Amino acid sequence: MRPDILNPLFAEITTLKGIGPAIAKPLDRLKIARIKDLLYHFPSGWTYRKQVTLLDEADVGQNIIIKLVIGEHKSSGHRRGPLRIFGSDAEGNYVTLTFFGRNGGWARKQLPVGEERVVSGKLERYGDELQIVHPDHMDKPDSKSQPQLAEPVYPLSEGITSKRLGQLISDSLQKLPELPEWAEPSVLSKAAWSSWSRALASIHQKDDEGLHDRLAYDEIFSNQLALQLVRKEMDRRKGVAVQGDESLVGKLKLPFEMTGAQKRTVSEIEGDLVQSRPMLRLLQGDVGSGKTVVALVTLLRAVEAGMQGAFLAPTEILARQHFASLQELLSGLPVNVAILTGRDKGKIRESTLMGLADGSIHILVGTHAIFQEAVEYKNLAVAVIDEQHRFGVSQRLMLSGKGRGVPHLLVMTATPIPRSLALASYGDMDASQLDELPPGRTPVETLVMSEEKLVSLVEGVGRHLADGKQAFWVCPLVEESANSDLAAAEQRAAQLKLRFGDKVAVVHGRMKGPEKDAVMEAFASGKTQLLVATTVIEVGVDVPNASLMIVEAADRFGLAQLHQLRGRVGRGAEKSRCVLVRSAQIGETAKARLALMRETNDGFRIAEEDLKLRGAGEMLGVRQSGESPFNIASDEQVREMIGMAADDAKLLLERDGGLTGSRGEAARIALYLFERDAGVATLRSG
Ligand code: ADP
Ligand code: MG
Q1: pLDDT band (50, 70, 90) for residue 540
Q2: Quick one: which atom of ligand 1 is closest to the CA of 285?
Q3: What DSSP line would sit under 556-620, residue for residue?
Q4: 467 and 508 share a domain?
Q5: Are residue 131 and residue 245 in the same domain, yes or no?
Q6: Contact in structure between 564 and 414 (CB atoms under 8 Å)
Q7: N or C: lower Cβ tally within 10 Å for the chain?
């Protein structure tokens, strides 16, 4: 249970004064529901002001605070003209306060003639006069609210002002509890950080990077602590040593010889499997490096040892494809592979669940459905996760309940994950690399073309299809909505159908499963030749006869994503091409990024350069796709502090594994504060 001391922070914002339905909506859009969300809604910038007593102390263009005596109100002749109100400083020099539109009526009431007001705003010159348009404060000199020398500017949503948010935040600060310190004292003193509550209060009062670092550190620390607790719990519960006997792997008839890298990786994995400490291994290998076979051997070892394996794919299409390729590679062997996705319902699902429970199904392939609560395995020993950079703590805990012991876990990815990101998602893990492509591949030739040349591109596609070859056509990524993605793909498909008729098919994420499969099958079997798609084909799809890929509006894709897309071609003997169609006008960075794609096929280099080109930007776009486990820490802060946080967490657990000492208790509070309850849960069961 959450410690009581945190209750004020988790209270709904409706417990604050003056939160009605009108303001609840914009707050909801800002994802602010609890007091804690308000307090962690940090300023995005600051307005600085200069306090003056006389107007000549300020320069035009400066934001000032000044006490004025209100003078004459002057409406302009015509109806829509501004209202002008004169105010004079201590020496009688005056400034015009100008109000447009409906603000006029309100200002009239706020600024009665003859009274004093503390006014703030930007001083401008209008003709020979000084003026302030729509002052942002007009307070009575004795009122509690006064313009500040530095005022935070908050990220906003329609329907709420920065000032209003500031008020709500300062009301919330009244409820801020003093929490015990959870950070390592030496870390605190080295960075000269203040206490948590001081930092949280100050970050709304002054612009100071150190404060943000401290508060981000807390989140990173909780993340690392939770992950380490889970790892400890997994080790304590133990896995099952998986010792294969070659009865299946020995009979596997692969249509090729494994590469050196594949063999090495397989033996690294086998070394883990024979231990009772559950494996936690990351397998990085570029697109086309042959990860599927490594997964297969890993799963077969479990089956050889009389246990089960599970293979998780990120999408329905990929799950179907993995299922098909596993079945093909296993033909003739006594291995029962089944598939389970969210789509499978009723009788089929029932019988799959039964087969899993009684052990007659040896390997289960599927989407997230395969780890749902209702899915019971007889004795799951190995789980392979394909292309999921984040497989959360709670998912892992759930998985760990599915075997006799904790299943061994292999995470595969084509996107090179920086160490900091792997740490953030999984904690410390072992890593293997498939740093060698299977032989005989001809690298894909990449061309960049302006969208103005689309007509001649279509001609080129025509010649390609006339030769009996196949191609992908990927449509622009439209960020605002999946609907417009769809419209773009369908529109393009319609145009191409006019030209190429039945040779054209279209596939997108909104299609129902069976419909999607039918389209993919028709394309894989060569019945259709040109597949127009949204990015649903991004990962994994394997059609070796497709040797041309067109990507429209390529400048709007991430480089890692382009690299994945390009990996869909170049899988057969045929020389393949990838045409990146760019907008007519693009900036220098976009140009450099596309040039890099033309220059190299090396996924690691692309990922590295992409990070550099985007500076301290998104960590491989994971934040966009909602895969980042952090809300407060920026990617840069994660990179900088995660190593330190990992050490800090480790040290604490070495000294106080049950988190029962005073710092341990404090750390528990941090886990709850950052909603890493799963980490705490491991302590209870211990
Ligand atoms: P990844 O998942 O790493 O992108 P896949 O496992 O889909 O790659 O393999 C890509 C293609 O290469 C598949 O058609 C596969 O059959 C083939 N392949 C895998 N390993 C080898 C190898 N050692 N020699 C030749 N072809 C291979
Ligand atoms: Mg793959």
Answers
A1: low
A2: 3
A3: GS-HHHHHHHHTTSS-SSS--EEEEEE-SS--HHHHHHHHHHHH---HHHHHHHHHHHTTT--ST
A4: yes
A5: no
A6: yes
A7: N
69 pLDDT exceeds 80?
yes
**Residue to substitute in 252, 253, 256, 437 for testing ligand 1 pocket (most ligand atoms within 8 angstroms of CB):** 256
CA distance 459 to 499: 10
Quote the domain boundaries for residue 136. Answer: 52-147
What is the arrangement of strands in the sheet containing 337-340, beginning at the earlier edge strand? 337-340, 363-366, 308-312, 380-386, 408-413, 280-285, 430-434
pLDDT of residue 314: 82
For residue 410, give the H/E element and its range.
strand 408-413
Residue with the smallest CA separation from ligand 1 atom 15 is: 290
Number of domains in the chain: 4
Q: Which of 315, 415, 542, 566 to mutate to test the pocket of ligand 1 (most atoms within 8 A of CB)?
A: 542
Residue 542 has pLDDT above 80, yes or no: no
Tell how strand 116-122 and strand 124-126 pair up.
unpaired
Q: What is the mean pLDDT of residues 483-497?
A: 78
* Rounded Cα–Cα distance for residues 229 and 207 (Å): 35
Whether residue 395 is found in the same domain as residue 345: yes
Nearest CA to ligand 1 atom 2: 291
Domain boundary among 600, 615, 635: 600
Are residues 252 and 141 part of one domain?
no
Each residue of 282-302: pLDDT tens digit? 998 888 889 999 999 999 999
| CATH number, domain with residue 29 | 1.10.150
- Ligand 2 (ion): residues with CB under 5 Å are 540
State the pLDDT confidence band at 624, using cuts at 50, 70 and 90.
very low
Mean pLDDT of the chain: 88
User: Quick check: 94 pLDDT over 90?
Assistant: yes
Tell me the pLDDT band of 414, cut-offs 50, 70 and 90.
confident
Alpha carbon 260 to its chain centroid, in Å, reads 34
- To the nearest 10°, report the CA torsion of 327, 329, 334, 339: -20
Q: Which of 482, 456, 451 is nearest to 555 (CA)?
A: 451
| CA atoms of 348 and 404, how far apart (whole Å) | 26
Q: What is the pLDDT of residue 141?
A: 95
Q: For residue 397, tell me if it sits in a domain.
A: yes
**How far is ligand 2, taken at its centre, from the CA of residue 287, in Å?**
7
- For the chain, counts of helices (H) and of strands (E): 23, 23
Q: Are 446 and 594 in contact (CB under 8 A)?
A: no
- Is 312 within 8 Å of 364 (Cβ atoms)? no
Q: What is the distance, to the nearest Å, from the Cα of residue 305 to the centroid of all Cα atoms in its chain?
A: 38
d(CA 155, CA 32): 12
> What pLDDT does 509 receive?
72
DSSP 3-state assignment of 324?
helix
Which of 306, 324, 289, 292 has its CA nearest to residue 248? 306
* Secondary structure letter of residue 276 according to DSSP: S
Query: What is the chain's length?
Result: 686
pTM of the model: 0.73
Instruction: Say yes or no: CB of residue 362 within 6 Å of ligand 1.
Output: no
Q: Kindly give the number of the ligand 1 atom that is closest to the alpha carbon of 262.
A: 23
Asked whether residue 633 is assigned to any structural domain, the reply reads no
Percent of all residues in the chain with a pLDDT value above 90, rounded to a whole number = 59
Return all residues near 89 (Cβ < 8 A) that are at least 6 apart: 53, 54, 55, 66, 67, 68, 95
Instruction: Say if residues 384 and 311 touch (Cβ distance below 8 Å).
Output: yes
**Residue from 431, 415, 450, 428 nearest 562 by CA:** 415
Q: Which ligand is nearest to the CA of 283?
A: 1
Residues 452 and 564 in one domain: yes
Nearest by Cα to 670 from 228, 220, 173, 231 = 220
pLDDT for residue 478 is more than 70? no
